[in-house]
Amino acid sequence: MAQIPHAQLATTQISVINESTVLTDAEVTPVVVALQQQVTNDFRPVWGVDAELKMIPQGVPATPGTWWLVILDDSDQAGALGYHDLTPDGLPIGKIFAASDLKAGTSWSVTASHELLEMLADPNINLSAFVQNANTSGTLYAYEVCDACEDDRFGYQINNVLVSDFVYPAWFESFRAQGSTQFDRGNQIQNPLQLLAGGYIGVFSVTDGSGWQQQTAERIPLNMRHRADVGSRRERRSVTRNQWLVSLPLRKISNNAQQYRQHLQTIQRRKQAA
């Protein structure tokens, strides 16, 4: 597969912001190092997208003009702190809900890798591949590069950090024959548009115009696991962009975060006193 010379690529600056109450900065830092290696060594050569990640310690403001990758407890905390659909500068933002992952028994580092790579591949959440069946029918496939192979079992290790598998551009090319090329980084997918176990993809039938739906590998009715969290990429794809909300200024978010942590401490003290 042809690779794009590094010198020809613009490098996106991304601030990794830890607002989670379940992860310390010391736990997040090695994951950021692994994510940087994944982007530079694995993702950039095939997708032609480069990024430089910078870890932002808790309480330190992010560099203005950067994209954000924010580690939060859950979608409720995201709303409480004021992290919405875009940064205050109107730039892309990705969110990892670490407490939700821990409760579900899934890896937050895989989620971080997943969100980072998908933000780089489709930062405006508006790209799709069209498979036309006839003059008046066809299906749009969301340009999400990790959904098809998102399950933790298909991830791989970088410096003892588990990161997400991701598809190659050929995955979206329906003309490709089985096994004719590499469809994902782990070489576990053998056909275009194939979903691995636990995987899914957003589809939009232009024939019936029913909006974005989730197609799963198991072809079973959707459950809570497939429901998009508020503020997630999947939820934003189904919302018209003029309804996206800009995040609050960092100073306001910092004040909200302090109040949020104080509230959690109060709840904990009440539980211990009960």
Produce the secondary structure layout.
Elements: E1 11-18, H1 25-47, E2 50-56, E3 67-72, H2 75-81, E4 93-97, H3 98-104, H4 108-121, E5 128-134, E6 137-142, E7 156-158, E8 161-163, E9 200-205, E10 212-216, H5 233-237, H6 250-273
Helix pairs in contact: 1-4
Q: Could you name the key traits of this structure?
A:
274 residues, alpha/beta, four-stranded parallel beta sheet, 6 helices, 10 strands, globular
Describe the structure.
- The chain is α/β, with parallel strands linked by helices and 274 residues long.
- It has one domain (8-273).
- 29% of the residues lie in helices and 20% in strands.
- The protein contains six helices and ten strands, in the order βαββαβααββββββαα.
- The chain has helices spanning 25-47, 75-81, 98-104, 108-121, 233-237, 250-273; strands spanning 11-18, 50-56, 67-72, 93-97, 128-134, 137-142, 156-158, 161-163, 200-205, 212-216.
- The strands form three sheets. The chain has a four-stranded parallel β-sheet. It has a four-stranded antiparallel β-sheet with strand order 5-6-9-10, with no helix packed on it.
- Helix 1 runs parallel beside helix 4 (108-121).
